[in-house]
Every structure is written in C-alpha cells, then in structure tokens.
Design a protein that fits this description.
- Among the domains are: about 100 residues, Rossmann fold, CATH 3.40.50.2300; about 130 residues, Histidine kinase-like ATPase, C-terminal domain (Heat Shock Protein 90).
- Strand 7 and strand 8 form a beta hairpin.
- Helix 5 packs antiparallel against helix 6 and helix 5 packs across helix 9.
- The protein is built from 9 helices and 10 strands.
- It is elongated.
C-alpha cells in the first residue's frame, strides 16, 4: 500500500494515442502519477522499470492482444493489478479477462473520461482495503502463533517442574519409606506393613507424575522427534488397556522446526484424547508420511463418530488454530457409527 503522501502510480496501455493522452491528462488532474505505453512491448518495459499500483489496459493492441500481454505480466509473484478499457462489442472478452483477475472494466464511449476517475478511485480503494485486510490477517496469525508458543513454553516449564521437582521429592520420600519399612520389619510389623503400602502408593504417584510431565513436554528438538513422539503416544495409549492404538510410518519423517513438530504432535494428541473420551473407540491408528510436496498426519478411530450438528469444541478449535499457525490444513471427517478421521496436511517448503 503506497504511503499517504505518495501519489498512486498508474500505467495506461492503449495504442490510440489521442485517447491515451486524454485519459492520462484526466487522471493527472486527479492527482495520480501517470505513465503511458502505446504498445504491448512498451507496457512490458514500463512495468519492468517501474511497477504500477494500477494498470489500465486496452484489450486490442497492434503488436499483442490484451490476454497474451496479461499472461506475460502476471507471471511470477509480483502480479500487476489492472482494469480493462474495452470498446463496444468486446463485453464477452472483458468478462473473460475479469475471470483472469481484472479488478474492473470501463467502456470506450462518450462517458469514458467522466467515468474513468471514479472507476480508478474505487479500484484503488478496494486494493487498499484488500492489503489492509491481508495485513490484519497476517498480524492475527502472528499473534495466534505467539499465544500458542507462550502456552507451549508454560507447559514445558510446568512439565520440567513436575519431573525435576515434585517427581524427585516423591522418589526421595518413597526411598525413606522403604528404609523405614526395613528398619521396623522386626520390631513394629504393623507399621512396617503400612510403610510398605505407602511405598507402593508413592511409586504410583511418581509414575503418574512422570506421565503428566511427559504429556506436558512431549517431544524434543531432534529431527525425528515427531516420529518417535507419535510412536510413544501410541504405546502409552495401548498401555491404558482400553483401546488398541497403532502407529504407521513407513518411511522416516524428519522435521527441522521444533515448533512445527510440537504443534503436529499436539494435534495428534488431541485427536487421540477425543477418540478415547468422546468416541469410545476400540481401535485408533496414527499415520505419518510425506511426499515431496506435503507432510501427512492422520488419526482415525472406529468409535461412534461425531453426532450430527456437533459444535466445534475447545479441542477441535485448538487443533484448527495449531494447523493454521504452521500453515497446514485440517480436515475432520465423521460418519455416525464409523468413527472420525482427522487429517492434517502440511505443505513442504523447499
């Protein structure tokens, strides 16, 4: 978006030199910076030298037709926004060019010079709004990523405290109970028996603390952390004894970005939790794979599926936010009685 003190730079492309001068003069009186090109080749050179904020293009040029010129101009990332200036009888062509990205069109008739300034103002305003919306969306996504990253850091901190603090303390108390149990075995058998029971409860508390800590700090920063983390998630789920969980990864999948790894793992973890808590699944499958273009993460279950009209809960919303934060797409397919399939596709950037 041009700064407020910068006059929009327009390029008018038309091989009718008289009309070209009239249009240029009309738009200059509106405060625009206007360049002109009387041929397709001149237009290509002008765009290369100084890309315009908006181009006004005649569809019929002597050296190259409008659609062909557009094909050349719209190659690459820096596409030129344009409106079409067309003569009577070319309405069908104008509609086709609109489908190819034209922002508006104006007819070559007696009202052309009167209408042209308002059409240009409207188009530039729409462009400014579109850029502002894109900037707002980008900022929104950035803030979402920061919120998720802050939550992840907090979870890791709590997980470390559980493992290194509470876990170690419970382990020390358990060892003391074991020692006291041995010391009182002969003199106070009842106390010794109670201490043995306390030792068992403390061992269970230590195991649960480590399980919680592992859930809060699920994966490391290694390139194969996602693959090993999902395999461990499947093993822990199997260990519950209520469901069969299988991890399928036919070829090694390596990710260099720990943040992406963490978000993908959390998506899988939430999908597994949903299958356990809500779908009452008996079988869950985690799949991880990749092609040259994308990475696939899929979680399927054989549970009851989501009920018709089921609102998106917090868990599903968080999965979508996580996918959006890393530029991935998330699809949730559910059929009553046939389980749920959660599919996350992450484009692979070169």
């Amino acid at each position: 978006m041009p700064p407020p003190d910068h006059a929009p730079h327009l390029l008018i492309v038309d091989d009718d030199e008289g009309l070209l001068l009239l249009m240029a003069e009309t738009l200059r009186t509106e405060g625009h910076e206007v360049a002109t090109a009387a041929s397709g080749r001149a237009a290509l050179a002008a765009v290369a030298a100084h890309p315009p904020d908006l181009m006004l293009l005649d569809l019929k040029l002597r050296d190259v037709d409008g659609p062909t010129l557009l094909g050349r101009l719209q190659q690459g990332e820096n596409r030129v926004p344009f409106i079409v200036v067309t003569g009577q009888g070319d309405e069908k062509v104008a509609v086709e060019v609109m489908k190819r990205g034209a922002l508006d069109y104006v007819m070559k008739d007696t009202a052309l010079l009167d209408l042209l300034p308002s059409v240009v103002r409207r188009t530039l305003a729409a462009q400014a709004q579109a850029r502002a919306l894109a900037a707002a969306q980008a900022e929104h996504q950035r803030l979402e990523r920061e919120v998720l990253a802050a939550g992840e850091r907090e979870r890791q901190s709590i997980g470390a405290d559980l493992h290194d603090g509470l876990g170690q303390l419970l382990t020390a108390v358990g060892l003391m109970c074991t020692a006291l149990k041995e010391d009182t075995a002969e003199t106070q058998p009842a106390v010794s028996q109670s201490l043995g029971q306390m030792s068992g409860l403390l061992r269970e508390a230590v195991a649960q603390t480590r399980y919680l800590a592992r859930g809060l700090v699920p994966v490391g920063g290694e390139a194969d952390a996602l693959q090993s983390g999902l395999a461990e998630l499947a093993a822990r789920t199997n260990g519950l004894g209520r469901v069969r969980c299988r991890f399928d990864c036919r070829r090694p999948v390596r990710l260099k970005d720990p943040a992406v790894t963490g978000h993908l793992y959390r998506i899988a973890q939430e999908a597994v939790n949903n299958a356990l808590k809500h779908a009452h699944a008996g079988r869950i499958t985690l799949r991880l794979g990749e092609t040259e273009k994308q990475l696939l993460l899929e979680v399927t279950d054989d549970g009851g599926g989501l009920p018709a009209g089921h609102p998106a809960g917090l868990g599903l919303g968080l999965m979508r936010h996580r996918a959006s934060a890393i530029g991935a797409s998330l699809a949730i397919e559910s059929k009553a009685g046939n389980g749920v399939t959660v599919t996350c596709l992450l484009p692979r950037r070169p």
